[in-house]
Design a protein that fits this description.
- This protein is about 25% helix and about 20% strand.
- Strand 14 and strand 15 (about 270) form a beta hairpin.
- Helix 1 (about 60-70) runs parallel beside helix 11 and helix 11 (about 520-535) packs across helix 13.
Length: about 625
């Protein structure tokens, strides 16, 4: 029997009652917080979770794993059939680590030092190595194998005790909110889970995306509406770690989009002017000549394509993920994410704020599908350009690979986005780029007392051709110092139980150009998951309360990742002595009985040695 769950009419808050609604906040902060106003949905299934991670990003996976490891019953939604975001579904399995120096300070070396990386990620990268022998990174690898051999086992780890549930092929459709002690709190998230119909043909994302959000069955999919909510009588903690900022829009939360009038401001200069996206793909070189179907699309901007000062061979090896066993290029698989190549500067993916607000009635991601379709055509055009400009005797062996990215179209399952809708944090906080940089003598960016994650990358801007960013984007020094991310950047000033992670952080567009890389997203995801678990353990769903309890969040984060930089002469700033944190981190990471050697407390050590695993965490201080 299917149960009817009506979605309440929009619960609007009286003007001036929304938390932190400053009179001079500008056009981006004048929305009233409440429910997404949509039609009634027929709910097929209810999932009760202490933490709901609205996912799709690299940060989402890290948040969900950390939340569950820290003891919270966690539900993760994933719009594709691969978790991992950039690492997998978005087709960027070439880890972007900093390479730059600030004076004599080698920021790149510090960023790649395992002491400064989340421990699990560092272990994975060490094991992966560089099978593609690429030159953009020390780690270029097959995303299909990484997902199957590393990420799926992490999700199924018995040490999680069944606390993590993953809803693949699931998008966020509606959100319900009710008043809380410090402002509105999300009570329910309604999601659409789809199952492919047998025999349904492949579709490009631009044709399929609206269907992903539609609760009705279609020729491509059967659908199930899932209500995600808290345990009986409790409200969940919600983390928006989506690639599109779905929860921010649907909850009526304050957010930024596009470029602001100034770095760190909460007023937008142009909400359709941000960063260019890209649809990565993989080219294969086969021993025998290939008969490749003709390009089905017109080439809209052939003048954009080029390799500049680089050779064709350098472009091929730039993000190569398989270095074939044969001579020359034989057996190679080259991932393409190249500017000026399949980088798409001709349009912004996101609808303007006013259009997105109108779409809340029947939410479909707030995406300009014409821009997405044009980006797909543009990516195909780059494949054909490379094939036509290959060295003599090479082009006829090249074809579009439809295996390694797990997509029948050959394009990544989801675009690689360089920016998205971004939260406005508590008290209007927005992480500015200026906090990430400084003179060499400073050694790190601003050291926030509520720091919960580390990052290091320069501000990498891929501008659009149809708009002009504000003047402060030009002529600045993009190099960052090793920087810290504060817990404040993971909050939203309008929704009390909402955290954000990844690109949806409370940050300026310029700051997001430096924080959007995979290692930083993973670190921020850990912080969001630790904060959510802290809120659950304290039985307090208020982000303002968890900000006051930042020491406990930091303690939990340090089990999984550093929050202080290890430089040549030690940590900056020096972390406190946390006793058995190495022991707890080992147990939380599934190290089993081998963790006993890291544990000092005799009772804890014996529990671990006896195979107690995660059940030893309370004894060991976890």
């Amino acid at each position: 029997m299917r149960r009817i769950e009506p979605i309440m009419a929009a619960l609007l808050w009286a003007a001036g009652c929304a938390p932190g609604a400053d009179a001079d906040a500008g056009q981006d902060d004048d929305r009233q917080v409440g429910d997404s106003a949509g039609a009634e949905l027929t709910v097929d299934r209810v999932e009760r979770c202490e933490v709901i991670v609205a996912g799709g990003s690299t940060a989402a996976l890290a948040a969900a794993l950390t939340s569950a490891r820290e003891g919270a019953v966690t539900c993760l939604t994933e719009p594709t059939d691969w978790v991992g975001g950039q690492l997998t579904a978005a087709g960027v399995p070439a880890i972007d680590a900093a390479w730059h120096k600030v004076g004599g300070l080698d920021v790149g070396a510090l960023a790649r030092d395992p002491a400064n990386l989340p421990r699990e990620l560092a272990d994975w990268l060490r094991a992966l190595g560089n099978p593609g022998a690429c030159w953009v990174s020390h780690n270029c690898f097959r995303p299909d194998r990484f997902h199957a051999q590393t990420l799926l086992p992490a999700l199924r780890d018995p040490q999680l005790g069944g606390r993590l549930r993953v809803l693949f092929a699931t998008t966020i459709k509606q959100v319900r909110s009710e008043p809380g002690p410090n402002g509105p709190q999300i009570t329910d998230v309604f999601a659409v889970t789809r199952t492919p119909v047998a025999g349904a043909g492949p579709q490009f994302l631009s044709a399929a995306l609206a269907d992903w959000y539609d609760p009705e069955d279609s020729p491509q999919f059967t659908k199930e509406v899932v209500r995600l909510t808290g345990p009986e009588g409790e409200r969940p903690v919600v983390i928006d770690a989506t690639e599109l900022g779905d929860v921010l829009v649907l909850a009526g939360a304050p957010y930024l989009q596009g470029a602001e009038v100034a770095d760190g401001a909460t007023t937008t200069a142009d909400d359709r002017c941000g960063q260019a996206m890209v649809l990565p793909f993989v080219i294969r070189h086969d021993a025998a000549p290939r008969v490749e179907p003709a390009n089905p699309f017109p080439v809209d901007h052939p003048e954009f394509y080029g390799i500049g000062k680089y050779s064709w061979d350098q472009v091929w090896r730039y993000r190569r993920i398989v270095d074939g066993p044969g001579e020359g290029y034989a057996g190679d698989r080259s991932l393409q994410n190249w500017n000026p190549g399949n980088d798409f500067p001709e349009g912004y993916l996101f609808l303007g704020r006013a259009q997105a607000e109108e779409q809340r009635e029947d939410w479909a991601g707030g995406v300009d599908l014409e821009v997405l379709a044009a980006a797909e055509r543009h990516a195909y055009g780059w494949f054909w350009w490379l094939k036509a400009h290959a060295p003599a005797g090479v082009g006829e062996h090249l074809g579009l690979d439809r295996e390694l990215l797990g997509s029948p179209t050959g394009l990544a399952k989801f675009p690689y986005l360089r920016d998205t809708r971004r939260s406005v944090g508590l008290d209007g906080y927005v992480l500015p780029f200026s906090d990430l940089t400084g003179p060499e003598a400073q050694r790190t960016g601003a050291v926030h007392p509520d720091r919960v994650a580390l990052g290091a990358y320069l501000a990498d801007i891929h501008p659009l051709r149809g708009c002009k960013l504000p003047g402060y984007f030009y002529g600045f020094d993009p190099k960052t110092l090793p920087y810290h991310i504060p817990l404040r950047a993971l909050t939203n000033r309008g929704v009390d139980n909402l955290l954000v992670a990844g690109k949806t952080m409370a940050q300026s567009l310029l700051a997001s150009a430096a924080t959007r890389m995979q290692p930083t997203e993973w670190a921020v995801g850990i912080a969001a998951g630790a904060a959510a678990a802290t809120m659950v353990a304290a039985d307090d769903r208020s982000t303002r309360a968890v900000l006051a309890a930042v020491a406990e969040v930091q303690r939990r984060v340090r089990r999984h990742a550093p929050i202080d930089w290890t430089l040549d002469d030690g940590a900056v700033p020096a972390p406190p002595d946390d006793g058995d944190d190495d022991c707890v981190a080992c147990i939380s990471g599934g190290g089993g009985m081998a963790c006993a050697g890291k544990c000092e407390d005799p009772t804890c050590k014996q529990c671990v040695a006896d195979g107690g695993g995660a059940s030893c965490l309370p004894t060991c201080g976890g």
